[in-house]
Amino acid sequence: MTGLVAGLDGEGLVWLIAFLAAAGGFGLFWSVRGLRHARLIGDTPTARVRSAPQGYVELKGTANAMAGPPIISPLTARRCVYWFYKIERRVQSGRSSHWRTVEKGRSDDLFHLEDDTGACVVDPEGAKVIAAETHTWFGATARPDRGPSAGHGIAFAFGRRYRYHEALIRVGDPLYGLGEFTTRRAGHGSEAEEVKALLAEWKRDPERMAMFDVDGDGEVSLQEWEAARRAAKSQVRRDRDGAETAPAAHVLHRGGSGRPYLLAALTEKQLLRRKLRKGFGGFALFVVCGAVLLWVLQVRGIL
């Protein structure tokens, strides 16, 4: 090995040093991130949905769908509360080949995290999501014509041009959430803001504005616009009166604090072990790459 390193030309040595530095830097980043997440998971106390404080919280419960159209995964057409998919195509380059992503996506539909005190709306946008069920399978078409059970595993990759990935969180899966908790109620903004927003909506509706054009000249005069303002204020007040008795909606979302937003179909202990493994694994990669880099520099007389 020493002779191989000593015999590298200038360009080869630069590539080796760059590779070791990049791998070590990646390991350090992965370690810091994993251990930071592990610390947050371990240090953040678990809150109950009904009594959770406003702000950054940890919630534990089960995943459930909200009322409305079902959430359907795009590749296997299965009902779930969250999906992610990716389709890759095998690209030949000389004697070697690699997989190139041709399509991917993730759901942004809202769903519920439920514990024994109530339900919280989960907005998955911007979250780091760890799904309960993941599949990888292969096929010959740009969209899969069969599910993973018919083509699952590396043994089916030979001769197949496409590789499919799908990850799901299903109804009833355990769900861990770490993010910003906000309780929202209809009419939480000021009356003036809601009147302004409603008038702006009406201005985009010609039929609505025609109702206020009393003289029929095709334009809304200042007096007619004042009548529209009074009508908008009356509607906003009626809506706000009704909203006072409406139940509050609890929402878990990313927030603007910059702290990690995690959703995992795992128990807290499983997630903590996973983050610790990644943190220590990244640190080990950093140490190994650093040691090898120092050894290469010593062999070449740079240090």
Keywords:
alpha+beta, 5-stranded mixed barrel, 6 helices, 37% helix
Put simply, the count of helices is 6
Radius of gyration: 28 Å
Poorly predicted ranges: none
User: What would you call the shape?
Assistant: elongated
The percent range for helix content is: 25-40%
Structural class: alpha+beta
Total E-strand runs? 14
Average predicted local confidence, pLDDT: 82
Largest sheet: 5 strands, mixed, barrel
Gap between N and C termini: 18 Å
Order of strands in the sheet with most strands: 2-7-8-13-12
Order of helices and strands: HHEEEEEEEEEEEEHHHEEH
β-strand amount: 25-35%
How does this structure look, described?
With 303 residues, this protein is of the alpha+beta class. The chain has 6 helices and 14 strands. The protein has helices spanning 2-6, 10-43, 191-203, 206-210, 222-243, 268-299, and strands at 46-47, 55-64, 71-72, 79-80, 82-93, 96-106, 111-115, 118-122, 128-130, 133-139, 162-169, 174-184, 249-253, 262-264. The strands form 3 sheets. The protein has a 5-stranded mixed beta barrel with strand order 2-7-8-13-12. Strands 6-5-11-10 form a 4-stranded antiparallel sheet, with no helix packed on it. Helix 3 packs across helix 5. The protein is elongated. The model has no long low-confidence stretch (mean pLDDT 82).
Quick recap:
The chain has 303 residues and is an alpha+beta fold. Helix content is 37%, strand content 28%. It has a 5-stranded mixed beta barrel. A 4-stranded antiparallel β-sheet has the order 6-5-11-10, with no helix packed on it.
